[in-house]
Design a protein that fits this description.
The complex is a heterodimer of chains A (113) and B (114).
Chain A: E1 3-5, E2 10-14, E3 19-21, E4 24-26, E5 33-39, E6 46-52, E7 60-61, E8 64-69, E9 74-79, E10 88-95, E11 101-103, E12 107-112
Chain B: E1 4-7, E2 10-13, E3 19-25, E4 31-37, E5 43-51, E6 54-57, E7 64-66, E8 76-78, E9 87-94, E10 104-105, E11 109-113
Parallel strand pairs in B: 2-11
Antiparallel strand pairs in B: 1-3, 3-8, 4-5, 4-9, 5-6, 7-8, 9-10, 9-11
Classes of the chains: A mainly beta (113), B mainly beta (114).
Amino acid sequence: AQTVTQSQPEMSVQEAETVTLSCTYDTSESDYYLFWYKQPPSRQMILVIRQEAYKQQNATENRFSVNFQKAAKSFSLKISDSQLGDAAMYFCALMEYGNKLVFGAGTILRVKS
Amino acid sequence: DGGITQSPKYLFRKEGQNVTLSCEQNLNHDAMYWYRQDPGQGLRLIYYSQIVNDFQKGDIAEGYSVSREKKESFPLTVTSAQKNPTAFYLCASSIGLALSYEQYFGPGTRLTVT
């Protein structure tokens, strides 16, 4: 069965600095997608970034980038120039055939001013 | 504006009562999903539907039921058989079940059963 593990329950970062959130996963499929979702206090799930397993190039969306290591089954999220609005719960998720998402337990990110 | 609506935002029920959570989307999406979120855990899939009048169990379907009579609507009933119904429930939709389709989420319903 596919699993997603986020080993950091909580992280803190100083405003304007960089932070990396970790995620490892397990799947027997060769084609899949990986996602990072942000859940602010409003609890609305917001897609931050996604990565297709077949693409070797790491995805980037403005201040957000990933380090995708397929062989190691690792998918970390780097947030550069952290802002107060980045404070939220971040979920790593795996999507396989059938479009079903499997989520990690989440990492709470706190941003200090 | 296109999006997903879940109502109400907060719902309170007495133990032993069935309760139905509403989910409506105007994105013209074929696929819809229900997830449950508990503290310290990620979202877990309850049910999903690829098309009208068809739905499949997810990982934690016991104690829940759904219907899909209209493309835009996918209500979830939490039955009295669900042992721990208090949770945050999220509805999502996507264009279809193909691998590349993003899921869009509604604002969620917080259900409290006492």
